[in-house]
């Protein structure tokens, strides 16, 4: 099922990592069309494939993939989405730290147990959330 949802997306682009503007074709404040959620750490908005920074969610075919995907979908629908571009990854995604109504979506995903702290990139940014999920036996830690 194709999810069609118009949401405001305010992207603050950190251009110091690239020689060309990353999102030049997208203004800072734009109404964007959210397309299908790919998995628990990847979604598409107005043609941009966006990866959540600092978290690693199950891929298709892995346990809890569908649950993780649905939790991300609900998180993205919960309010106004704002993103800060951090990097590009090997999967051609724009990696962004994303928030929905002031809640860090990566933190929500990790604390709920449907993603892990991707310490290789986050340097343990979501370690506290992962510890809480593990202690509670939530999601991946069940």
Which architecture name does CATH use? Beta Barrel
Q: Unreliable stretches, pLDDT < 50, 5 or more residues?
A: 1-31
Total number of helices: 4
Global structural class: alpha+beta
| Tally of domains | 1
Main sheet strand line-up: 1-2-3-4-7-6
Mean pLDDT: 80
Can you characterise this structure?
- The structure is a single chain.
- 39% of the residues are buried.
- α2 runs parallel beside α4.
- The protein has a single domain (5-135), classed as Beta Barrel (OB fold (Dihydrolipoamide Acetyltransferase, E2P)), CATH 2.40.50.
- Helix content is 24%, strand content 35%.
- It has 4 helices and 9 strands.
- With 142 residues, it is of the alpha+beta class.
- A 6-stranded mixed barrel has the order 1-2-3-4-7-6. A two-stranded antiparallel ribbon has the order 5-9.
Keywords for this entry:
24% helix; globular; 142 residues; OB fold (Dihydrolipoamide Acetyltransferase, E2P); 9 strands
């Amino acid at each position: 099922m194709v999810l069609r949802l118009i949401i405001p997306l305010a992207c603050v682009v950190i251009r110091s990592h690239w020689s060309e503007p990353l999102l030049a074709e997208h203004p800072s404040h734009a109404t964007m069309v959210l397309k299908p959620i790919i998995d628990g750490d990847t979604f598409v908005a107005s043609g941009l494939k966006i990866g959540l920074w600092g978290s690693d969610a199950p891929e298709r075919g892995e346990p809890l993939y569908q649950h993780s995907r649905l939790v991300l979908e609900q998180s993205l629908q919960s309010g106004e989405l704002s993103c800060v571009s951090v990097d590009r990854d090997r999967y051609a995604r724009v990696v962004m730290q994303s928030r929905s109504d002031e809640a860090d979506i990566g933190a929500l995903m990790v604390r709920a147990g449907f993603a892990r702290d991707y310490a290789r990139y986050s340097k343990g940014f979501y370690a506290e959330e992962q510890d809480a999920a593990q202690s509670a036996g939530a999601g991946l830690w069940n």
